[in-house]
Amino acid sequence: MTDPSQPSGQTASAYLRTRFAPDPRREVVWRHIARHLSGHWRPGAAILDVGAGYCSFINAVEGAGRRVAVDVHDELDAYAAPGVEPVQASATSLPLGDGEFDVVFASNLLEHLSREDIAAALDEFRRVLRPGGRLILIQPNYRLCARQYFDDYTHLTPLSDRSLADLLRAHDFDLLTVRGRFLPLTLKSSGGRLTFLLPLYLRLPVRPLAGQMLLVATPSRT
Description:
Blueprint: H1 9-18, H2 24-37, E1 46-50, H3 56-60, E2 66-71, H4 76-79, E3 84-88, E4 101-107, H5 115-128, E5 129-140, H6 142-149, H7 161-170, E6 173-184, H8 198-203, E7 210-219
Parallel strand pairs: 1-2, 1-4, 2-3, 4-5
Antiparallel strand pairs: 5-7, 6-7
């Protein structure tokens, strides 16, 4: 979902209905993605999904000890599955304790924030992560989709795999994975419609139609 600097819950809910409408294919996609990413955490991990939207990712996570969904929109309770804790809050001010989570996940979030709010969000992500925890980010890669990037009226800040990698280092993260081509840009793309082929797609060394990137980082030990 989004956290655009920062809208009311009602405004964010309107965005869900228009720009980011429900789509049953999305749930299938996220089940595959959650399984693919599960190698980055151990069974029983505490996982936080920031900008959770319809809770598609966090609902699909299996074997976690704790699952928390954060978003600013006011319909979060309706989409969180049993066992998922919904928290209506901004990514820039998480009402959560220091070092509570093994994993912080965010998908298609940071591009909706101003540079100042991105910095604040990254500092919050680092604060709530345990030592050795994982920050997992999936984002549109501006280098691959510059022509479409601002078709979404809530996009504020262009980010690429190179600029986001540098930004994470500047905020005291060590990079573990930088994959510039990870997923198709949207479900509306031709690649996005091939939901049941996604496991095969994620195994390809070269991914056609990719417009989203994956970065995995851990808090620096300094």
